[in-house]
Amino acid sequence: HTTTLYTCLNTYFSPCRMDEWICSKCKKNGGSKILRMINTPTTLIVTLNRFAVNQFGIACKNNESIHYPEYLDMTPYIYTGSSSDTSDDDSIDSGHYRLNSVVCQIGSLNGGHYYSYARHLNNQWFSFNDQQVMPVDISEVLNDNNNAYILFYTR
User: Fold this and answer.
1) Using CA atoms, how far apart are residues 66 and 85, in angstroms rounded to an integer?
2) Its pTM surpasses 0.90
3) Any bridge partners for residue 73, and if so which?
4) Closest residue by Cα to residue 11 from 63, 49, 65
């Protein structure tokens, strides 16, 4: 089965039922909360949860493939209430981002190796692996979705 970054974001930003909550005004219990971004950052850092607990209760690395896009639209997750609810004019900004770098990890929770990809100002992508720096195509960056750990997007 294929998981996308949008699937992860939809889960993270979905309404959460709060059965224990009691309204201070009407005294009814239950409700839901939903997370939304008020201000979008210039650089959006997404950490993928690569930790899992197996059937024996032992922590292990989650190597599930998570497909992430070069261009990310965060507008569905931005609070769209009254502009008077926001702190400044910068908060009403674009939720459109472009992938700028990716940190990857191969191995297990107990040990492994980190490497990264980064986009140069001229839009050429590079792989950084110890002392080796090599130009790569964006398709290689987007296809390394079993090892991606941290995604950096910029507006």
Assistant:
1) 35
2) no
3) 96
4) 49
